[in-house]
Amino acid sequence: MHLESFLAKSRIIDLKSADFEEALGELIGMIPDSLLGGVSRHEIQKDLAERENSMSTYLGNCVCLPHIKLENLSRKYVFLVGRCSQGLRLNGKEQYSNARLVFLILARADEPSYLKVLSSLAGIFSDDETMARLLAPVAIRQFQDRMLEAFAGTDGVRDKARRLNKVFLSQAEKIAKDSGCTAIVVLGDTFTNGIRLANYFKGMRIVLVSERRTDADLDDFDEIVSVHSYSRIRMGQLKSAILVGITKGILSETDKVCCIGGIRGSDVIDSIMVFNVGAEFSQFYLKNTEALPAGVKADVVERVIDIATELAVEGREGKPVGSLFVVGDAEKLRPYLKQLVLNPFFGYKPEERNVLSPFMDETVKEFSLIDGAFVIDGSGTLEAAGALIHTPDFNLKLPGGLGARHAAAYSISLAADCLAFVVSSSTGQLSLFRKGQMLVLSEPRA
Ligand SMILES: Nc1ncnc2c1ncn2[C@@H]1O[C@H](COP(=O)(O)OP(=O)(O)OP(=O)(O)O)[C@@H](O)[C@H]1O
């Protein structure tokens, strides 16, 4: 049975009162009238408190499991969860001072699965690993995620996925050790509710790569790299993540990483890949000190990769678009730039035209339709759009098939200390040019 369908984040709270009966009142107060079928909350609270006094529902393991059947409950079950970090009081009974969770169950009176559900719940709360995770002193949002995660394993399919993930994780640990990996990279968007790694990869650096900037599960990771995972195959996301990792000093050319992940949102690990950062980026510069041009913030690079990836995958208004982003010191780039059209960013305050502002995405995507390049300074300020790059002639060493946009990116990357990102309109490929070297960050469109 899918027990998680009876649990909602909004019904998982921190209790204000340490008095058992009042705590029940807080939980019952969260149930909408429409679910109760006319029974008064006060009656339910009184009934539950009386039963608790005559027969305790304290399970041990810090959990109380009060439960009641209601004639007209409009669902099979309603679950409510209260966390009580200081324990509870109930008529001086000692055991309640150990309680940290109250899990209240309302069940429809005619529900035949009642005993089975109670025993499944008792099973979940007797699992030490689950309880260690639920009792950790984390923020309420994280606790809500962990609670849902604990219940996500209550149907056969997810149980199977969990078992399989355990096999993958222990194999990945072995492979990582045997092949001398220095870090583990986890593609976090594989998992809808995070992944627990506390029992794996002891003593290894664990890096989470995720599109979402999430607070959940951070304690299992040493570092977080945020990149969009729009890329159709995982290699693209991984390469962008490793590049951002290098710019942030999280990874370096000497690292060998073991990557684990699966299809986005599947909750199933399906691949383990060992990735030698130095070899993979071999034609490219690698040293952390050279990865970023002087004065360019790693956050700005991360953001430009996000916007460029979105453009590469989604295009604009259903049509593929190309784009060129040059990131570096605007003064040093100026000799090589000429406006093709009036600069649309002219006259705006720097803080109103910074790529780090979440509101700039749409503006940048809209202006991507203009011919020419975007020029972005190291702190993220958009200096220009529609800029034509003209540089002294360089010997072009570009792969065949690449045209004027790529040539412009190549030449400016040689002329000035900058990064030039190109989204190809014809292939959708995202490439980075640095000091005349080209690094493909995402694969061409299928
Ligand atoms: N020197 C330049 N400076 C800035 N932008 C340029 C420059 N040359 C070309 N572009 C931009 O690149 C666009 C496409 O040029 P072209 O098709 O030759 O390049 P490409 O490298 O093949 O790129 P794509 O794969 O997107 O077609 C132009 O319309 C223009 O917007």
What is the topology?
Elements: E1 12-14, H1 20-28, H2 33-36, H3 41-54, E2 58-60, E3 63-64, E4 67-70, E5 77-83, E6 101-108, H4 114-125, H5 128-135, H6 140-151, H7 156-178, E7 183-187, E8 205-210, E9 223-226, H8 234-247, E10 256-261, E11 271-276, H9 277-280, H10 288-291, H11 298-314, E12 323-328, H12 330-333, E13 337-339, H13 360-367, E14 373-376, E15 382-389, H14 404-415, E16 418-423, E17 430-434, E18 437-442
Parallel strand pairs: 1-5, 3-6, 4-6, 7-8, 7-10, 8-9, 12-14
Antiparallel strand pairs: 2-3, 5-6, 10-11, 12-16, 13-15, 14-15, 16-17, 17-18
Helix pairs in contact: 1-3, 5-6
Bound molecules: adenosine-5'-triphosphate.
Residues 322, 324, 371-373, 388-389, 402-406, 408, 424-427 line the site of adenosine-5'-triphosphate.
Keywords: ATP-binding, Nucleotide-binding, Nucleotidyltransferase, Transferase
Catalytic activity: 2 ATP = 3',3'-c-di-AMP + 2 diphosphate
Domain DAC: 282-444
Q: What small molecules does this complex bind?
A: adenosine-5'-triphosphate
Oligomerization state of this entry? single chain
CATH architecture of the largest domain: 3-Layer(aba) Sandwich
Mean residue pLDDT: 86
Side-by-side strand order of the widest sheet:
13-15-14-12-16-17-18
The largest sheet is: 7 strands, mixed
Helical run tally: 14
Domain PTS EIIA type-2: 4-150
InterPro entries: DAC_DacZ, DacZ_P, DisA, DNA_integrity_DisA_N_sf, DNA_integrity_scan_DisA_N, PTrfase/Anion_transptr, PTS_EIIA_type-2_dom
Pfam family, one: PTS_EIIA_2
Keywords: ATP-binding, Nucleotide-binding, Nucleotidyltransferase, Transferase
